[in-house]
UniProtKB/TrEMBL annotation:
It comes from the Bacteria. Keywords: Cell inner membrane, Cell membrane, Membrane, Transmembrane, Transmembrane helix, Transport. This is Putative ABC transporter permease. Its main location: membrane.
Amino acid sequence: MSAKKVKDNVEIYLSLLIAAVVVAFSFLIPNIFWSSANFQSIATQIPVLGVLALAMAVTMLTGGINLSIIATMNACGLVMAWVATHYPPTISSFVLVILSGLAMALVIGSINGFLIAVVRVSPILATLGIMTLLNGINILISKGSAISNFPEYILGINSANILGIPAPLLVFLVVVAVVWVILEKTTFGRTLYLVGSNERAAYYSGINTRKTLVWVYILSSVLCVIAALLMMSKLNSAKASYGESYLLVSILAVVLGGINPDGGFGRVFGIVMALILLQMLESGLNILGVSSYITMALWGSLLLAFIFLKGINIPQLFSKS
């Protein structure tokens, strides 16, 4: 069985799971589950986690991982928050806010990429070290307090609606489309998959694997800037400790969405489906009054079951068919 077939199976499994969740909650809480308020809630929860999941996914496609996405988001958020609260609320200030966040992301991504691609530190150790360093710096600079009271050009992102669709969700969909184009339609995307499949073979075929890895971690950090902006708009504040629970959930969404942890294959559409599944589960269980700890245990069980279903196909990968 081909790798493409395995990926197609991932999306089939996710479709079946989503259908099962919809049917279950339609019987248990039909009036509340199908209410516009519930879907509005799901739509507001997906964007930040979704962008962070994409930031994780691009690194995992190369066989790596980025454990510093939350710390990067908060570092970029604190820098953008400082700029936003110290300059008059004008268009030029908004541009300066974005540029300051991108500059921070470029520094963090370059350091991660350098450690992994040039120094050859394990991605887990390199990003864990950067995560710990950033967490310390974030708390030291902000003194553990939040920076709040942002101008309307930031708060308006969360409050705006276009044709009844929340602006943050539209931002997420645009990011999904851009990442899909990068991965599926560009030379860089194809190179990224090749490096994830076999870095040594990619190197001997003439690909600059070091440059590719550095840019992958820069891209991951840039996505964290978008997540930081969405978080700032949603909470009207930036803090060193925001989003800590998102790290493991983003990894869960990426793996559940069909990204191979060893690199080489996976698609953006699978991640979107996994995010929808997880948020529907969380929303439905919250309505039923189920403990958040039980929800986390269910997510872990879901991941293990999903890995088992995928594992059934593994022997077929080595068959002549």
